[in-house]
Design goal:
α1 packs across α2. The chain is of the alpha/beta class. It contains nine helices and ten strands. The two termini are about 25 Å apart. Helices cover about 35% and strands about 15% of the residues. β9, α7 and β10 form a beta-alpha-beta unit. The strands form two sheets. Strands 1-10-9-6-2-3-5 form a seven-stranded parallel sheet. The chain has a three-stranded antiparallel sheet with strand order 4-8-7. The chain binds 2-amino-2-deoxy-6-O-phosphono-alpha-D-glucopyranose. 2-amino-2-deoxy-6-O-phosphono-alpha-D-glucopyranose binds next to loops.
């Protein structure tokens, strides 16, 4: 697993944005061989999306031949609700780039048959040849997408009931009213994320410090589903200094020394200036 420690949220976002852009550019996607990108929502990726939008506007990168699959969506929330993940993605990303609307895939939380919706989603991912790069955030309880503690580490797309902790965390987007937060979501599984050819997780702020510790320093556990990243051949975590406060000093120093020697932080930070 590669762990990149950026100075702060802005540096994390620029680093991750440039990293993703380079992956897409290097793949030289075409209509016949598009690049398949997995997308998260939440406050963590907002800066990354902002940076990708800037690179698109500057002509550094095009999304014409990029296909996206989002991680999750609330069950029963109108797609036009400002806090639906559909709204989030169009407002914060898709409306501002040259992606083709037909290349965007987001789970339908209002589908009549949820099981069919989830099975079709997996099938669509398979039909385009799998996901090249799955970007993600992490919940304070270590969840990835909406794979709450106790989720099978081999899970595929399905419905999940949210934990009280996640409902409380996400109430900040619903006027701080837990009653307005949907109690269930459709989500890709841990196994779906793990099947991607590469994974990039963003983790910032002191509220994520415990989750970061469990994800990278403790064993793989279904109680911290993001820890499954330890089993991925191309797993990357990009965090900020604030998220590192519960790491052992030796772990912190190891990753800092390594990235210093490799020059990998400055390389990506300065890539498209
Ligand atoms: C939600 C999403 C996750 C996201 C998490 C953290 O639970 N389903 O995909 O990683 O929130 O959100 P934030 O980035 O706002 O802290």
């Amino acid at each position: 697993m590669r762990v990149i420690i950026a100075k702060d949220y802005d540096a994390m976002s620029v680093w991750a944005g440039n990293y993703v852009a380079k992956r897409i550019i290097d793949a030289q996607p075409t209509p016949e061989k598009p690049f398949v990108l997995g997308c998260p929502t939440g406050s963590s990726p907002k800066g990354l999306y902002k940076h990708l939008i800037e690179l698109n506007k500057k002509g550094v990168i095009s999304f014409q031949n990029v296909i996206t699959f989002n991680m999750d969506e609330y069950v029963g929330l109108d797609v036009n609700h400002p806090e639906s993940y559909h709204s989030f993605m169009w407002t914060n990303f898709f409306n501002h780039i040259d992606i083709k609307p037909e290349n965007v895939h987001i789970l339908d939380g209002n589908a009549k048959d949820i099981a069919v919706e989830c099975a079709n989603y997996e099938k669509m991912i398979e039909d385009v040849g799998g996901i090249d790069l799955f970007m993600g955030g992490i919940g304070a309880d270590g969840h990835i997408a909406f794979n709450e503690p106790g989720s099978s580490l081999d899970s595929r797309t399905r419905v999940k009931t949210l934990t009280t902790k996640t409902i409380l965390d996400n109430s900040r987007f619903f006027d701080n009213d837990v009653n307005q937060v949907p109690k269930q979501a459709l989500t890709v599984g841990v196994g779906t994320v793990m099947s991607a050819r590469e994974v990039l997780i963003l983790c910032n702020g002191p509220q994520k410090a415990r989750a970061l510790h469990h994800m990278i320093e403790e064993g793989v556990s279904h109680m911290w589903t993001a820890s499954m990243l330890q089993m991925h051949r191309h797993g990357n975590v990009v965090c900020d200094e604030a998220a590192c406060e519960e790491l052992r000093i030796s772990t912190y120093n190891y990753f800092k020394d390594k990235q210093q020697l490799e020059g990998i932080v400055d390389y990506y930070l300065n890539l498209y200036k």
